[in-house]
Amino acid sequence: MAERVSEERAHSLVLEGRSGTVIEGVLEVHSFDEEAVILKTSCGDLTLEGEGLHVGALDIERGHVRIEGRINALYYSDAAPTRRGLRGRLFGG
């Protein structure tokens, strides 16, 4: 039952300039480093790319995450997240 409640969390994303974001409806943190944060949300996988990124606050029980640092891009996908290097992006491998 708890799994079902988690899946139905309302999702929202507030971008504060390009220096941070507050995200609600987060179910899981797949991975994070200074260049990318990959989250599972109630609306699909969310990837944030940028510089100097760090998770400032994390409360998975409530589905709340705050990310700070310069945000260059964010995008959603329905597929499992993958991290590919430059060679993989260029040659599709």
CATH T-level topology: Immunoglobulin-like
CATH class: Mainly Beta
How far the N terminus sits from the C terminus, by CA atoms, comes to 39 Å
Q: In which range does the helix fraction lie?
A: 10-25%
- How is the biggest beta sheet arranged? 6 strands, antiparallel
Please tell me the overall pLDDT.
84
Poorly predicted residue ranges: 1-7
Instruction: Please state the structural category.
Output: mainly beta
- Spell the H/E element sequence: HEEEEEEH
- Total strands: 6
- How much is the radius of gyration in Å? 14 Å
Shape: globular
**CATH architecture assignment:** Sandwich
Proportion of residues in β-strands: over 45%
Number of helices: 2
Number of separate structural domains:
1
Give me the side-by-side strand order of the main sheet: 1-2-6-5-4-3
